[in-house]
Amino acid sequence: MTNLTPREIVSELDRFIIGQKDAKRAVAVALRNRWRRKQLSDDIREEVYPKNILMIGPTGVGKTEISRRLAKLAKAPFLKVEATKFTEVGYVGRDVEQIIRDLVDAAIAMTRELMREKVKATAHSAAEDRVIDALAGDNAREQTREMFRKKLRAGELDDKEIELEVADTSSPFPMMDIPGQPGMMGGGVNLGDIFGKAFGGRKTRRRMSVAASYQLLITEEADKLLDTEAVTREAIEAVEQNGIVFIDEIDKVCARAETRGADVSREGVQRDLLPLIEGTTVSTKHGPVKTDHVLFIASGAFHIAKPSDLLPELQGRLPIRVELRALTEADFVRILTETDNALTRQYKALMATEGVGIDFTDDGIRALARIAAEVNSTVENIGARRLYTVLERVFEELSFTAPDRDGEKVTVDATFVEKYLSELARSTDLSRYVL
Ligand SMILES: Nc1ncnc2c1ncn2[C@@H]1O[C@H](COP(=O)(O)OP(=O)(O)OP(=O)(O)O)[C@@H](O)[C@H]1O
């Protein structure tokens, strides 16, 4: 749980997402409200439900990114699903509950990772002992072990090969659904889990370098220290109190189309989603999970259907509406230069691993942004995702030849960009396929 103020949350989001102020403010308030709720006395706390959010805006403008970054900031379990998934053939109403089961799985992975960090120091020394056992043998004298320990810590033995007995994580048992078992649907039961535990887990011997063995052993030792039940308990608590579910393409289940064949009616999907959003208890293989305080962020372009076409009950459950605007050429320039994870930074870092220095000039960046905006307007507007295809194309040749160009400096200016892109961008037909 973060105690950042809304202003601080927005400024954290600003590091990764350009513009979209309203959406950032809305999610920042939603997160702060959770903190506020935590401060309340028990009786009133249970009464305060999250105000879910409806994000309206074209594709690729930051809807998912804002939600994902928010979850990361809050260390909250996060899951993204497409509402249309539930209209596919073979889906039945109850399947929406799978959303919560998947969220629990995500939370368990996240919680385990966080708790692993806490037991890392202890796990580290246990892992070190196992490596020394492998190097020196079980019956080695203490002096010999200390000698190995010193060398090990100095990194002198990193490349040495050792053979270790480690847990076998590959399961010979298939995932099986137990028919008629509530709460197991789609989740399946891993027989390996059951038998693995019953028989104390299978072991396998593997050869690897000392350096490579470390991470594996630390994870294994940390897992031994982690109490599975405590992890599950904390994970479920995290889902119930902090979980965030992002439901994309909610507008696509708006049109009140009739059921055809095995296709579930779209309105049906809304009806199925409703209890989850209103608050229900979902049974999972880890136990029951209440969804009352999970934050739902629904999103859609709403080009054809309007939010008022959603079921009234659903509209009521998504009281906060925010619009995200289409991105412009000027936004692209900022996305390429100002964000912490800017693509220009990524390519620079990637090429640096090959010893190739990359320098982006201002006119180079402007050319990239202009071409991305042009292709978006002529072919299809896919928002900032266009920058990925454009940059990949510009760097294609360099990416391939970089290993032979160690020590070179490359300046990405307007001429460089034009050389690889101008012809493509001018031909709508071509760019339809390549960009
Ligand atoms: N405003 C923005 N600032 C920086 N990067 C952005 C912005 N909008 C989108 N991006 C980048 O573009 C990619 C796609 O964005 P995102 O997944 O948020 O799209 P979306 O709006 O959720 O669309 P969809 O509804 O189709 O999923 C992400 O990698 C994201 O980093």
Descriptive notes:
The protein has helices at residues 6-14, 21-39, 42-45, 63-74, 98-118, 120-136, 142-153, 191-198, 210-225, 228-242, 266-278, 312-317, 329-337, 343-352, 362-378, 385-394, 396-401, 414-426, 428-434, and strands at residues 53-56, 78-82, 161-167, 175-176, 189-190, 203-209, 244-248, 281-284, 287-290, 295-300, 320-323, 357-360, 409-412. By secondary structure, it is an alpha/beta fold. The chain has 3 domains: 6-110 and 235-323, Rossmann fold (3-Layer(aba) Sandwich); 120-225, no CATH class; 329-434, Helicase, Ruva Protein, domain 3 (Orthogonal Bundle). Strand 8 (281-284) and strand 9 (287-290) form a beta hairpin. The structure holds adenosine-5'-triphosphate (ATP). Adenosine-5'-triphosphate is lined by residues 17-20, 59-65, 248, 299, 327, 335, 339, 383-385.
Gap from first CA to last CA: 41 Å
Class of the largest domain in CATH? Alpha Beta
Low-confidence segments: 174-199, 256-263
* Main beta-sheet annotation: 5 strands, parallel
User: How many beta-strand runs?
Assistant: 13
Condensed summary:
It is built from 19 helices and 13 strands.
Compile the SSE list and pairings:
Elements (H helix, E strand, L loop, with lengths): L5 H9 L6 H19 L2 H4 L7 E4 L6 H12 L3 E5 L15 H21 L1 H17 L5 H12 L7 E7 L7 E2 L12 E2 H8 L4 E7 H16 L2 H15 L1 E5 L17 H13 L2 E4 L2 E4 L4 E6 L11 H6 L2 E4 L5 H9 L5 H10 L4 E4 L1 H17 L6 H10 L1 H6 L7 E4 L1 H13 L1 H7 L1
Parallel strand pairs: 1-10, 1-11, 2-7, 7-10, 12-13
Antiparallel strand pairs: 3-6, 4-5, 8-9
Helix pairs in contact: 1-2, 2-4, 5-10, 6-7, 6-9, 13-15, 15-16, 15-18
The structure holds adenosine-5'-triphosphate (ATP).
